Amino acid sequence: FWEKVQCFETVDSTNLIVKDWAQQGAEEGRSAVAEEQTAGRGRRGRSWISPPGENLYFSILLRPQAEASRMAMITLLMAIAVTQSVRELHLDAKIKWPNDVVVNGKKICGILTEMYPSADGSFFLVIGTGINVNQKEFPEEVKKTADSLALELGTDVDREVLLASVLRHFLDCYDSFLETMDLSGQKELYESFLVNKGRVVEVLDPKGKWQGTAIGIEKTGELLVQRKDSSVEAVYAGEVSVRGI
Ligand code: BTN
User: Are residues 108 and 176 in the same domain?
Assistant: First the structure.
């Protein structure tokens, strides 16, 4: 697998590099990691500020033989992998559904998965992960919500060792996913990491805004939210925004 990881100094976005490779026929597992991104992309059209030399920015190409509807689940696998690796550093990492990794309530990792059609009618996925590793200063607008491993630990972390650990955990999760094409093998682990579990969340879906208690996830990745009348609803990522309150 390691032969498939290519390191770059400065790129616009590792997701774009891997997308280009994929469109030229690159095989599953090809990965790009960069010291710096000049146009790092976040979810919902936001940017991901990617200063040089401190953090991890990497993207992986996947070509799962799965239906497009199953693809979103794979993002959750990366959140599990990062959480496992950060926990090995003795930090209490948790997952904020669907796929932010937080420590003490502050975000230390973001994942952006992009799906594209291939020429043969199937799809490929680019999973891009940004981990705040050794960054000590954050811009004013994210100071309250962003954090890094070094700030939490009080010491710097070896980025290569961390990347190797994340990739190893991710491959384990991905192998298990491919066996069932769902999260049955990971559901329990994911739920044990879920910061929202047992908490009141506010769901904003096409029908409006409502509140409930997050109780876990479906084996297909949706968040299970219990209403006051005890009925349980499965909430889809992308369709809704969930706010902890
Ligand atoms: C988020 O908004 O939480 C997702 C952030 C994802 C950032 C990573 S960094 C590596 C990869 N390349 C990008 O341009 N974005 C992702």
Answer: yes
Q: Tell how far the Cα of 223 is from the centroid of ligand 1, in angstroms.
A: 22
Dihedral (CA of 107, 41, 225, 193) sign:
negative
Ligand 1 nearest atom to the CA of residue 110, by list position: 3
Whole-number Å distance between alpha carbons of 163 and 73: 21
* Complex prediction ipTM: 0.99
Distance 231 CA to ligand 1 centre (A): 35
Q: Which residues line ligand 1 (CB under 6 A)?
A: 13-15, 37, 40-43, 46, 48, 57-59, 110-112, 128-130
Query: Do 128 and 25 reside in the same domain of the chain?
Result: yes
Range of the domain at 111: 2-192
Please give the distance, rounded to the nearest whole angstrom, from the Cα atom of residue 72 to the centre of ligand 1.
15
Give the pLDDT band of residue 3 (cuts 50, 70, 90): low
212 and 177 share one domain: no
- Identify the bridge partners of residue 106 per DSSP, sorted by sequence position: 103
The answer on pLDDT for 26 being more than 60 is yes
